[in-house]
Amino acid sequence: MSEDPRETPALDHRVPDASGPPAVELRGVTRTYTDQVAVRDLSLRVGEGEFFSVLGPSGSGKTTLLRMVAGFEDPDGGAILLGGRDVVGVPAHRRDVNTVFQSYALFPHLSVWDNVAYGLRRLGLRRAELRARVGDYLDLVQLAGYGRRRPHQLSGGQQQRVAIARALARRPRVLLLDEPLAALDAQLRAQLRVELTRIQREVGTTFLYVTHDQEEALVLSHRLAVLRAGRVEQVGTPADVYERPVSRFVAEFIRSSTTGGSNVLEGTVRTVTGAGNAALVEVSVGEGAVLAELPPGRALRRGQPVAVAVRPEKARLYSAEDDGPPPGWSRVPVRPRDTVYTGAATEHLVEVVGDPGATPLTVFTQNTRRAGETGPGGGPVLVGWEPRFSVLLADEPGRGDGGAEPGGRARPTAADGDPTPGSAPTPVGATSRADVS
Ligand SMILES: Nc1ncnc2c1ncn2[C@@H]1O[C@H](COP(=O)(O)OP(=O)(O)OP(=O)(O)O)[C@@H](O)[C@H]1O
Questions:
Q1: pLDDT digit string (tens) for 123-171?
Q2: Could you tell me the residue range of the domain that residue 314 belongs to?
Q3: I need a surface site. Which of 73, 100, 327, 389 has the fewest CB within 10 A?
Q4: Does the residue 332 lie in any domain?
Q5: Which PANTHER family match (predicted)?
Q6: Residue 163 counted as domain residue
Q7: CA of 61 to the centre of ligand 1 (A)
């Protein structure tokens, strides 16, 4: 990190400069451990002042990525730039970054005040300046009255706040955070999430935040990258990755604690109608039809197997006495399998009629009635949703025409107008961006 004690107000950290180079950039970075590729040809740009999360399941390479940015590990290939400067080979203590670890890593024999002051001593600040800066950062993390305590006299959440104050007090260009809330209980985690958001917005420092907790990443981040087996699967805002996942992996991995992951329905293309932004694809699923907007540049053929995702809170249930979904909506006949009362909502598990092998769908309904009161019409017989809530998932390696990704299924469903399984799919539908190939 730079040894530049600037005479700026304590919390006037860095003014995020979106016009300059990214705060962090990885270009084609690879890191291999003996026979294990932890990070594979990975490229990523994190803007100045962003709260950027790296989210992925265990073993997807998150910590390895962070450790390479910190300078604790070297990549086998590729470039890592901080503020536009390649730092590969630059030792950790000379990089303009600081790290907050899951384990806090405070000095147990030092007071809270001395822990925060520790990293500042080498900056050559005047005594009054140093005192003011430590005070400001303890204020920032709302521990102003705790300076004399030792770490063991603090709760886990308070210890992590000290670690954050210590890391920020040196005013690094980038703060790296490696699962900093993982050791805390659920309630403290939720509190500290709010705190972290406030702190980041207040100081404006770029945060690069590693977590395996989907909700944490959604709540905290301006943008996030979803990692899968050492590669970036998708980068986007929380709403992008939640509402418009690019793959089955992201659709299923990005889960909300209330509604879980996306439903993924597999079927075959029946028709493509309309053109341009109005192009719609109709997919046969069981005895029903799913309608989805066709993404730009995507070409489909009649009979082509495709997967469509829809979030459980976006779908609606209809009983035999209801009118059913309005025309132009997806319409899938179902039979009830289970319901789970979760307080504010009820989770309905329903089976797709005509596709016994399909994973049951989950639909959430708000509990606007009292528990035990049933609505008119008994159990659900149809599920429906608007086409804009359908996400046509990209073909994945091993999927596509007749293929299947590991764990997935690929088989044509019996539906109106589908070609005979095994016959060559025929082009259907409209032209323009909805072109069929
Ligand atoms: N020092 C090491 N030696 C050998 N293999 C390693 C080493 N560190 C990581 N790996 C392997 O590299 C892969 C990525 O590990 P990494 O710790 O970066 O993943 P992660 O996404 O942070 O996982 P977690 O959420 O469990 O911490 C894993 O398969 C892991 O076993």
A1: 888 888 999 999 999 999 999 999 999 999 998 899 999 999 999 999 9
A2: 263-414+425-434
A3: 327
A4: yes
A5: SPERMIDINE/PUTRESCINE IMPORT ATP-BINDING PROTEIN POTA (PTHR42781), SPERMIDINE_PUTRESCINE IMPORT ATP-BINDING PROTEIN POTA (PTHR42781:SF4)
A6: yes
A7: 6
312: left (phi over 0), alpha (psi -120 to 50) or beta: alpha
Q: What ipTM goes with this model?
A: 0.97
Are 155 and 187 contacting, i.e. CB atoms less than 8 angstroms apart?
no
Q: Where are the beta strands (DSSP E) in 286-393?
A: 288-293, 305-310, 316-319, 330-341, 345-352, 361-366, 380-385, 391-392
Note whether 201 and 271 are same-domain residues: no
Q: Do 236 and 270 have their domain in common?
A: no
Distance from Cα 99 to the centre of ligand 1, integer Å: 18
CA separation, residue 65 to residues 8, 31, 60, 229, 245 (Å): 32, 8, 10, 12, 22
Residue 64 Cβ inside 6 Å of ligand 1? The answer reads yes
184 and 236 part of one domain = yes
Q: What is the pTM of this model?
A: 0.83
Ligand 1 center from residue 210 Cα (angstroms): 13
Residue ranges of the chain with per-residue pLDDT less than 50: 1-10, 12-15, 397-437
Q: What token pair was written down for 33?
A: 């451990």
Name residue 187's amino acid.
Answer: Q
**Which token pair is 299?**
């070409």
The answer to whether residue 334 sits within a structural domain is yes
